[in-house]
């Protein structure tokens, strides 16, 4: 379940630090979260799609590692990002 160009651009613009930022930790976490949400919907309809489940598990682990890194290096940005992602639900 790939993100469309519009979805990706929307996430990048709402989470970037500066005008040219596309790869900061916050942007990466936001993109991974969006992909995980899409895969969650897919997995509720397709219980036996084990390759997608494996891919989702990999995305979750990658997001967890990025969040742990952000928490270790800049706790204020971590808290702000966690609050912003939680509020989007």
Provide the fold topology.
Blueprint: H1 5-15, H2 25-45, H3 50-73, H4 75-88
Write a structural description:
The chain is mostly helical and 89 residues long. The chain has a single domain, classed as S15/NS1, RNA-binding (Helix Hairpins), CATH 1.10.287. The protein has 4 helices and no strands. Helix 1 crosses helix 2. The radius of gyration is 14 Å and the shape is globular.
The termini sit apart by: 19 Å
Look at the structure and give the mean pLDDT.
Answer: 95
Fold-level CATH name: Helix Hairpins
Shape: globular
- Number of strand segments: 0
Structural class based on helices, strands and sheet pairing: mainly alpha
* Number of discrete domains: 1
Helical content, roughly? over 70%
Show unreliable segments.
Answer: none
SSE arrangement, N to C = HHHH
DSSP summary: helix tally: 4
| CATH secondary-structure class | Mainly Alpha
Percent in strands: under 5%
CATH superfamily: S15/NS1, RNA-binding
Gist?
By secondary structure, this protein is mainly α. The chain has helices spanning 5-15, 25-45, 50-73, 75-88.
Features:
globular, Helix Hairpins, mainly alpha, 4 helices
């Amino acid at each position: 379940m790939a993100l469309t160009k519009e979805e990706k651009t929307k996430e990048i613009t709402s989470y970037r630090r500066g005008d040219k930022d596309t790869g900061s930790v916050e942007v990466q976490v936001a993109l991974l979260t969006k992909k995980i949400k899409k895969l969650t919907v897919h997995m509720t309809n397709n219980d036996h799609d084990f390759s997608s489940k494996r891919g989702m598990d990999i995305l979750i682990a990658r997001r967890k590692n990025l969040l742990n890194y952000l928490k270790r290096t800049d706790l204020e940005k971590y808290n702000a990002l966690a609050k912003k992602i939680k509020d989007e639900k």
